[in-house]
Recover the amino acids of this structure.
């Protein structure tokens, strides 16, 4: 069932073999570690740790697919926060050294959280993530809806590709004209994509009803997961690193002196 997850590479690393509950805990720890500090240097430490996590998972290829999104995110963060934030060391116009540092830190925070989520999706099958959420006491219906949403994203993209190919077969040319013209050509795709997605959703709802979805309070699962020593080791290491970030935050070492938001 690995092929159902389009982000899952055909490799099996130590990160792949971790329990899904451990991976969710690592994701949460990485979020907290980069959201606490202001200083780009401290946020950069968290970014390097997440990139190390990415390297251990051998998921650099998946990150390469998002290179343009990361570039846009970097430009947006630097352009917006370098102007909105204020500091005493003015560089030019309204941009100060402190506001520029805060813009860099904001990009690192958003990019790091994106990479951390990518590692989770690239190393965890949807079935494992679903069972992990149930083991964490998330209601079965909520865990099922979350797992189904992850499965649904590639289906929507596949539907859009099929509709686009059908329009090309009818003689529609996408790449001619300026950017605004090409954007207008893509707008008519929304209606068939929306209708096909609704039809598929209705079919799935009928299929779930015929199988007695949520008829029984107790359920059994084909996939069984158990915490292994490597999971406890990973959780202990993540906890120690997170404690370090919290300690630096409480001591005020991760602030940007003079920054005003």
């Amino acid at each position: 069932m690995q092929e159902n997850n389009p982000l899952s590479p055909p490799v099996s690393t130590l990160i792949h073999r971790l329990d899904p509950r451990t991976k969710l805990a690592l994701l949460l720890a990485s979020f907290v570690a980069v959201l606490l500090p202001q200083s780009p240097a401290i946020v950069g430490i968290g970014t390097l740790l997440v990139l190390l996590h990415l390297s251990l998972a051998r998921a650099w290829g998946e990150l390469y697919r998002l290179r343009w999104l990361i570039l846009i995110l970097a430009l947006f963060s630097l352009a917006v926060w370098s102007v909105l934030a204020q500091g005493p060391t003015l560089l030019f116009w309204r941009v100060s050294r402190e506001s520029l540092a805060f813009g860099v830190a904001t990009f690192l925070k958003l990019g790091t959280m994106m990479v951390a989520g990518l590692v989770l999706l690239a190393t965890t099958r949807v079935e494992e993530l679903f069972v992990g959420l149930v083991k964490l006491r998330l209601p079965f219906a909520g865990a099922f809806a979350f797992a189904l949403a992850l499965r649904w994203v590639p289906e929507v993209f596949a539907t859009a590709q099929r509709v686009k190919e059908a329009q090309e077969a009818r003689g529609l040319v996408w790449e001619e004209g300026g950017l605004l013209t090409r954007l207008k050509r893509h707008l008519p795709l929304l209606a068939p994509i929306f209708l096909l997605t609704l039809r598929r959703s209705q079919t799935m709802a009928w299929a779930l009803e015929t199988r007695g979805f949520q008829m029984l309070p107790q359920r059994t699962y084909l996939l069984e997961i158990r915490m292994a020593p490597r999971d406890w080791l990973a959780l202990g290491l993540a906890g120690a690193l997170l404690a370090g970030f919290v300690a630096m935050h409480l001591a005020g070492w991760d602030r940007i002196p003079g920054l005003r938001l």
Summary: The radius of gyration is 23 Å. The chain is about 70% helix and 0% strand. The beta strands are 90-92, 95-96. The first helix runs from residue 14 to 17.
